[in-house]
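Input/output pair, single chain:
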Amino acid sequence: MNKKPNERAEELLSKLSLEEKLCQLSCQMLYPIRDDYEERRMYKFGNFRNPGHFLHEHRGGPVSPAEVTDAINRDISLSMECNSQSVPPIEHGEALHGAQWGMATCFPQPIGMASMFDAELVERIGDVIGKECAVVGVRQALTPVVNVVRDCRWGRTIESFGEDVLLNSDMGVAICKGLQKNGVIATPKHYADNYSYGGRDSNVSDTCERTMREVYLKPFEKCIKQGGAMSIMAAYNSWDGVPCTCNERLLTDILRNEWGFDGFVVSDYNSVEGVWEAHRLYDTEWKAQAVSLKAGMDVDLPQNSYDDLMIAYNEGWIDEADIDRALLRVLTAKFSIGLMDKPFADRDEAQRLVRCDEHKQLALETARRSMVLLKNDGVLPFKKNEIKKLAVFGMGADVIPVGENYSGPFEVKWTAQDAKTPLQYLREYLDGFAEVIFAEDEDIEKVASECDAAVYMTALVEGEGLDRSDIRLPGVTRKMQKDDNAVIVGKIEFEVKTNQEESIRRMTAANPNSAVVLLNGSPIDMSSWLDGCGAVLEAWYPGEQGAQAISELLFGEISPGGKLPITFPKTVGQLPLFYSMKPSGRGYGYIENDGSPLYPFGYGLSYTTFSLDNFRCTNNGDSLSISLTVENTGEYDGAEVIQIYLTGINCDVVMPLKELKAYKRVELQKGKKAELSISVPNEAFCYYDRRMVLGMHDGDYTVSVGTSCADIHKTFEIKVRAGSLI
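Output:
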């Protein structure tokens, strides 16, 4: 009879010494990779940041998947030799929008994935990332980020799925499923409320329990219950006076006792150290290790916690039962993913699989679907046979559009011989049709006025540790060279500061047939230049195939079909701004504006048009079915996202003005129509009452059907009485 993973883990645990147990709970991240790597590696430990991530810097350029596999296999082999039961370690790594051990397939940043409103497609992304992790031996991915973003000044907005609870939950679940079907442990992060006032990363959270449960905890719960996530990463910040890393309420009461989570918890990097150093709760790190372990934090990443845990054990702060409880969770996961039975990866398969044609095609498909057309006064699409000269400006034009955040291995930018910048692809795409002229910003008026059309591609650097107080396009600096004709000095290098907003205004004034392509990961204040601009395409950071997708969308081979997963404010002074706010007792505006956004959640234009008709609402007892007909009435094939929102009144507590509860993306050829049926489960009508009891409590609801939170085509009225829809 085959034993279950937990039974095998219990049997293995009983054979390990105390020292081996503590080693199995310890981790090491070691870089740079030098000749003395094996002398410095603590092979007796049970968790490692995979060495593949650091090989490229050591070699001075990209390292092949086969070489990465060899390095990880060597790591695992030597580790297994260092413990009595030949237990292989978990080699972990980042995988935010691609397996980050090296130059693996690079997809759009998560904010772009969310713009597709297509969980099935995101699961396919997760599947490819899982395959490209597992095939080299990386068996834990520190992803997805499911922190709901209510203030886009947070630098890590780029890593998120936006502001909506349902969208974050669905996309997080999809990534978890995709990873774990390949034997890669998904690790949703950062549990639980990872930023604070003004979008400040990892600052103290004083979010009340109601908001925590209604908003910030839900995606994590769904990732566990529906996505099967086997690990969770605790956040740096504190909540309710206790750091998340040692917060028993979060890690044991809610996570395990309420949700039934049976996986293991890892720290955010060095966050156990932060319990005493940053939060100053204890005077030594070993005490922080002890209280974190007892609270439910199992593995401290990426630190060597062995010494501190041994001190804590000897001082009586933890006992062997605490150690066994944590290690049993880790060992069970190792058996569950098949690591104990098949610890080594296949270098030849890695070489064949990583960035294969099928994976690159998926990267292209997702890049095409992720982009959002924000404005179009008849400028786009450009006509390929009418343009003889195209002017291209902006520092984003000649960069592979993957974004610098979690892209590529340590100290080496993501690159590939067949990956192109937007400028490179436009030149190939228009070869034989038009001349593509790339010019510096100081030459904008002259070049733009001489061309048939112009494009400005923005440049930003966003991500972890890059919170913003200003959401306008920043000034950018580039290096230039000038030959002063001096024999000795030769060329002089200097820096030029470019004001991107001013450059856009100059371009659109010189040539009205101009478009701006935003390459960014969070909302932009466009107030100083939008009025004079005819078209704006939000491309996000669309990944390795983004250059082709941008070109196709600019010239109408693909009609944009993405929708905003986050509200775009008019100015930074409106922040925080999100669509699902609760009612105000007085108003929503300012002296300067009415409080409405520049572009609302769910918004996105197309080159084609759609009509929605034949709306029906059917009460099935356990759900509502919203049926309708969608017809593509325009001149292009395209996609529309039908969105279902609820507004509750006469409930036991104040409800959001509007909240997304279901959606469906439909692709239609021009002239075609489709009959859709979208299910709204009874769960959508559940809320926490005044006693903080979750249930299907009484209330009167408006069910709104639309194509954004502000563009509603049909409404229905539904009541809940005694736990039933009527």
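Residues 453 and 513 are 5 Å apart (CA to CA). Residues 320-336 form the longest helix (17 residues).
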